[in-house]
Amino acid sequence: MTLESLEPGRTSRISAIDWDALPTADAKRMRALGFDTGVEVRMAHHGVFGGRDPVAVSIGRMTVALRKSQASAISLELDA
To answer: How far is CA 58 from CA 20, 22, 55, 76, in A?
Structure first.
């Protein structure tokens, strides 16, 4: 499962990030914001228009907006 498919209000832990799939500037920004394996994230909400882009993700005490293309590079642990 990837981050863009996480339902609003659900929480999961990042299992992997495909840094090579992201533009260098995006990867640098996401690392600076704390995105890394093992970090817990919560989907705050999806965009309201057709593509449901962007998504708002809570990480730590902040909420970050990501494009779906960025969120799709983030793999999450599956529920046990």
So the answer is: 23, 20, 10, 14
What CATH number was assigned to the domain covering residues 3-76?
A: 2.30.30.90
pLDDT in tens, 28-60: 999 999 999 999 999 999 987 766 789 999 999
More confident residue, 24 or 79: 24
- What is the number of other CB atoms lying within 10 angstroms of the CB of residue 63? 12
Tokens representing residue 33 in the block? 């914001």
* Cα 76 to Cα 55: distance, rounded to the nearest angstrom: 15
**So where are the chain's domains?**
3-76
Strands (E), 1-80: 11-17, 40-46, 55-59, 62-66, 74-76
Which pTM does this prediction carry? Answer: 0.89
